[in-house]
Write a structure and sequence with these properties.
The complex is a heterodimer of chains A (287) and B (191). With 287 residues, chain A is α/β, with parallel strands linked by helices. Chain A folds into two domains: 2-115, Rossmann fold (3-Layer(aba) Sandwich); 132-281, Rossmann fold (3-Layer(aba) Sandwich). Chain A has helices spanning 16-28, 44-50, 52-67, 79-92, 114-118, 121-130, 152-155, 165-172, 196-212, 223-231, 233-240, 251-258, 264-268, 276-281, and strands at 2-5, 32-35, 73-76, 110-113, 139-143, 176-177, 217-220, 248-250. In chain A, strands 2-1-3-4 form a four-stranded parallel sheet. In chain A, strands 6-5-7-8 form a four-stranded parallel sheet, sandwiched between helices. The longest helix of chain A has 17 residues, at 196-212. Chain A is globular and about 55 Å long. In chain B, 40% of the residues are buried. In chain B, helix 8 (108-124) runs antiparallel to helix 12 (178-186). Chain B is an all-alpha fold. Chain B is built from twelve helices and no strands. Chain B folds into two domains: 11-101, no CATH class; 108-190, no CATH class. Classes of the chains: A alpha/beta (287), B mainly alpha (191). Chains A and B meet through helix 2, helix 3 and helix 9 of A and helix 6, helix 7, helix 8, helix 9 and helix 11 of B. Bound molecules: iron/sulfur cluster (2 copies). The site of one iron/sulfur cluster (SF4) has 15 residues of chain B, from helix 6 and helix 7.
Chain lengths: 287, 191
């Protein structure tokens, strides 16, 4: 299967682990990723915060490049990029396209959140066939964050208050997703560099609840959530005066682990909070 | 939170809606937005206050408040509002207006981060994270703050780890269409 692919900036840098795990599992599932030639940054929080017009035009430029590729689906792993691209598409197809200095040229591919795509019946079945070592005994909470679901008017999400995509994926791998109430509560990623105190409160609450429902780890599909929950865990533990010790895995890493895809240890070695001890304890780390 | 209403200028709502629509006038003050907001603890006005004060033409108050800057853009309010008020989008509109009108941000570091980020993409069309952080730390004065509070030790350790784990690329990526990107980003008046 061939799909259009928009990696986004952070997958080429701080989220290299996410990027590599995506390439790894897509190869093993026979999905060919056609990266949009010459794509640009979606503008992220900065653009929509202080330059609305640029936020639409930046994403619009990339959409026009995507429209030149023949594939029906466009996969976007970063929920922020996904949200901005969907917003631009909706805005430029809406009532006031003349406000913007860019016009959509040609029909767009379907813009799809990667986790959502991997949770379709078809992809779950294809993944199940590849599972070599089910993740038995691994109890996790799936954390979705904001941008893949909200606002539903933009994302098209139906179960935006209680999304299921990641839960379905990890269950399909043999792990146990524990239901919990904070699936879509904000982690404050946009404030991590300017107001770490806000992040500490928001993320501390997530850790606390994850621990209370008996999760051993947190599963995410967003590299900003991952960075926020993984990199600052020690600092937040100090603020809260508690140990949480919760590894934060990308769902793609867990697919790779269960399907015995090469490179899993390399991907995870880029995490800051120890991802290995738990997997060793559960005897899941043998490749 | 209680507010003094002074010299209402009712054109404000019109002026803002022209950038929208945000449907602010449909607000019936149920406070659902505020009740679901994760960062009210850091705000000086609650999200529903902001909507009400926009309707009441309190330009100075809404453009100068901390709320619009500490808003995490999580979209919970917009998602849950029974009247389809686009609260989060309106917060963005107010930030942009504040910058355009030269109203100083009570959270200057947040504005500096946004500007540093946009300047970073302007150079090559994509973000280069390796220089984003140091540039921001210098410009925002955060470096000094970290030094004084001693938190630099944790951040330095983190930076080193990120580097040794290969998560800070040594070479930036540049795109062919960077001029187009630059053009999109140069219209804005800098705050
Ligand atoms: S949720 Fe909507 S109607 Fe209710 S107070 Fe907020 S903006 Fe007004
Ligand atoms: S978008 Fe901003 S105002 Fe709305 S709920 Fe989230 S943090 Fe609060």
């Amino acid at each position: 299967m061939q799909v259009t692919y928009y990696p986004g900036c952070s997958l080429q840098g701080t989220a290299r682990d996410y990027a590599e795990s995506i390439l790894g599992i897509c190869a093993s599932l026979d999905i060919q990723l056609a990266e949009i030639p010459d794509w640009n940054c979606c503008g992220a929080t900065a653009a929509h915060s202080i330059d609305h017009r640029a936020s639409i035009e930046l994403a619009g430029r990339t959409l026009n490049l995507a429209a030149k590729l023949p594939h029906a689906d466009m996969l976007v792993p970063c929920p922020m990029c996904f949200n901005r691209l969907k917003t631009a598409a909706k805005t430029l197809l809406g009532d006031n396209p003349q406000r913007y200095g860019i016009k959509l040229e040609g029909p767009l591919p379907q813009i799809r959140d990667l986790a959502d795509f991997m949770a379709t019946e078809k992809m779950l079945a294809a993944t199940a066939k590849q599972v070599k070592k089910p993740l038995a005994g691994l109890k996790v909470v799936c954390y979705y964050g904001c941008m893949a679901s909200r606002p539903p008017e933009i994302t098209g999400a139906k179960d935006f208050e209680d999304p299921q995509a990641l839960d379905r994926i990890v269950e399909n791998l043999g792990a146990t997703p524990i239901p919990w109430p904070f699936k879509t509560d904000c982690c404050g990623a946009s404030q991590v560099l300017s107001r770490l105190d806000i992040v500490s409160q928001l993320v501390g609450k997530l850790y606390d609840m994850a621990q209370r429902v008996g999760a051993q780890a947190i599963v995410v599909s967003c590299q900003m959530c991952q960075a926020n929950l993984d990199m600052y865990q020690q600092k937040i533990e100090a603020d809260w005066g508690r140990r949480f010790s919760l590894p934060v895995y990308y769902f793609t890493e867990l697919i790779g682990l269960a399907c015995n895809v090469k490179g899993v240890k390399d991907w995870m070695s880029r995490h800051i909070t120890d991802p290995f001890s738990l997997l060793q304890e559960l005897d899941l780390l043998n490749n | 939170m209680s507010q003094k209403i002074l010299n209402p200028d009712y054109r404000l709502l019109e002026q803002i809606e022209a950038q929208g629509p945000f449907q602010a006038a449909a607000c019936f003050q149920c406070r659902k937005c505020t009740n679901g907001c994760p960062v009210t603890f850091a705000m000086d006005l609650y999200p529903d206050d902001v909507i009400r004060l926009v309707i009441l033409g309190q330009q100075e108050t809404v453009l100068g408040c901390r709320t619009i800057w500490v808003c995490a853009a999580c979209e919970t309010c917009t998602t849950r509002c029974p009247n389809d008020v686009k609260i989060a989008e309106l917060m963005d509109c107010l930030k942009e207006m504040a910058v355009q009108e030269g109203v100083p941000s009570p959270q200057p570091q947040i504005l500096t981060l946004h500007e540093t980020f946009l300047n970073n993409i302007k150079k090559r069309g994509r973000v280069y994270e390796t220089t984003l952080l140091p540039a921001y730390l210098l410009k925002s004065g955060k470096l000094l703050e970290m030094w004084n509070s001693g938190t630099w030790r944790y951040d330095l350790k983190l930076g080193r780890q990120m580097f040794s784990k290969g998560r800070l690329p040594l070479r930036p990526q540049s795109i062919k269409g960077k001029k187009e990107v630059r053009k999109i980003l140069t219209r804005r008046k800098q705050g």
